[in-house]
Amino acid sequence: MDQRYFTIGMAGHIDHGKTSLTKALTRIDTDRLKEEKERNISIELGFAPLKLPNSTLNVSIVDVPGHEKFIRQMIAGVAGIDLVLVTIAADEGVMPQTKEHMDILNLLNVHQAIIVITKIDRVDEEMVELVKDDINHHIKQTSFASAPIVQVDSLSEKGLDELKVHIEEFLLKIKPRHENGAFRLPIDQVFSIKGQGTVIRGTVYDGAVEEEETLKVLPSGHVCRARQIQVHNTEVNKARAGQRAALNLGGVETHQLKRGDVLVRDETYPVTNTIDVTLQFTEDLSSHLKQRGQVKLHIGTSEVMGRIVFFDRNEVIHNPGEIVCQIRLDDPIVTRRGDRFIIRRPSPVETIGGGWILDPHGEKYRFGEETISMLEKKREGTPEERIEDVLEEAHWLTFEELKHKTGLHSDEIEDCLQMMLGEKVVYFTPYYSLKRIMQQVEANVLTYLHQFHEQFPMRYGANKPEVMNVANVNSKLFDKLLEQWEQEGIIQKDGRFIALHSFTSHMPQRWEKRIQNALDSLEKDGLKPNPFGDYLNQEGVPNDIREELEGFLVKQSLVVQLDKKHFIDFKVFTNAIETLKNNTNQSFSLKEAKDVWGVSRKFLIPLLEVMDERAITKRVDDKREWL
């Protein structure tokens, strides 16, 4: 079954058991810093792999700090998660950071949540019920109103099995991120390892990255190379969307990187310092937010100061619902339309709102209704933007699916697709997709086939299901892609096998001379060969390629297999047939064949049986007839 990759976040007030719960679930203590151990609080983000009974689910847990002083680390940690566990201690109930964390999660559009009451062994059942009432009161008007509430104790491990069941049920319902999108990894940790050099960590938001790929660091533009990739301390060739990854980077120094930088493969993601946004505010603002007031923007893992610009008011006094406005930043960020963000007030320090990016390329606009109307249209999106947005999310859709997801009329979609086809959109009956997504699919497949041919040069090609798994598309679309790639001379097919068009199966170059020496020796021994393994041993050909080598040699008509151990040279075999035919009548006996070939029954019987199998002769009673 296909593997699926997810990241779970821990959120909640300080000392409400996030790190202990992470340790109970994963057996890993995510507090690794000396200061964290001494103060018994989380300061930096912690990460651990969670193993679930369903082996197709690959899960990382992000443990975020609960103290209000480390809210920026919390925002960086939860920005890329698929599910959140909101921890609330049974001996304290809902606390200020519980509320702020839930506000932040709601503004970041993280609505998949499980409420976890921790430390239940410290209190009696009556207290637990009071805490549940407190939780229900606080979440009833929020997006977490329907979240299940699970009771656990991390020390006794009470309730952990039930919690794992809930986690698995949630993740199986969540649509996994697609690895065919443009690669993006916001960096949240940068450090150096002696003898290794620069290492970064982060959650892969979009796409996938492979070893040795050339990448770019934005916004600085530094070019680097992924020398090594690890997922939870295990070296891998590839990290995918939804996975927590560490990359050892070549070509860039540690001091040239920082939290908030973004690793990308191409120029898909804009670098900008002026963004048009939609903005929602928290319920209670401690003071007015004035025109051009200073704010701190948190997006991905970056934290940037800027000023908010309104076009229809001079201040926000109370929560006005969702508004459209602009944020002008002191430093550039990497983002695209649809990305979520949080804004906080630097003084007094508080979370004041959040929203999503309407346009990463904001410009200077006049104050007034004309600008508001323009931004409202941006919020709705042009028909082209709406088509691009839904294809970005779904990756391929039929015309009817596009119609349903965009809410556009058929005529509008047809007009837009006509303009977008070729430049932005491609069509494989009956699916539409973004050109760059399908280019990435093609690149993934070609890279896989190239690596497959290097690893298995004697095989014709890779099995179709394996290649389709790499493409990560459905079977109908995959067949269309194969058809096009074959027409373009990119690949070749032979039944269920797929290979690069330029590839021809061959002996491994490293061992080719030695294998040829073995074949020469086999030819010299004619119809009385030694076990084939003896020839290979004599030349030092390794055992791990022998089975595949034997099949390759037979398929290439270089040898003929007599039994499990013995082969003869193909030319020797054809010459032997010709000699026997010239020296016998239409039918012949075993003795006649033995006299012509001068071999014992050990080789005589297998040789004749091979001739029967190949319809060269036919056995009739105790004789054979030529066909």
From TrEMBL:
Locations listed in the record: Cytoplasm
Keyword presence, Phosphoprotein: no
Highest taxon of the lineage: Bacteria
Any one GO BP annotation for this protein: selenocysteine incorporation
Keyword annotations from UniProtKB, A to Z: Cytoplasm, Elongation factor, GTP-binding, Nucleotide-binding, Protein biosynthesis
Residues forming coiled coils: none
SUPFAM superfamilies hit by this protein: EF-Tu/eEF-1alpha/eIF2-gamma C-terminal domain, P-loop containing nucleoside triphosphate hydrolases, Translation proteins, Winged helix' DNA-binding domain
Cellular component GO terms held in the UniProt record: cytoplasm
Domain Tr-type G: start-end pairs: 3-177
A molecular-function term among this protein's GO annotations: GTPase activity
Residues spanning the membrane: none
Predominant localisation class: cytoplasm
InterPro entries in the cross-refs: Beta-barrel_SelB, EF-Tu_GTPase, EFTu-like_2, Elong_fac_SelB-wing-hlx_typ-2, P-loop_NTPase, SelB_WHD4, Small_GTP-bd, T_Tr_GTP-bd_dom
Keyword Acetylation found: no
PANTHER family: ELONGATION FACTOR TU, MITOCHONDRIAL (PTHR43721:SF22), ELONGATION FACTOR TU-RELATED (PTHR43721)
Function comment: Translation factor necessary for the incorporation of selenocysteine into proteins. It probably replaces EF-Tu for the insertion of selenocysteine directed by the UGA codon. SelB binds GTP and GDP.
Name the record gives this protein: Selenocysteine-specific elongation factor
Lineage of the organism: Bacteria, Bacillati, Bacillota, Bacilli, Bacillales
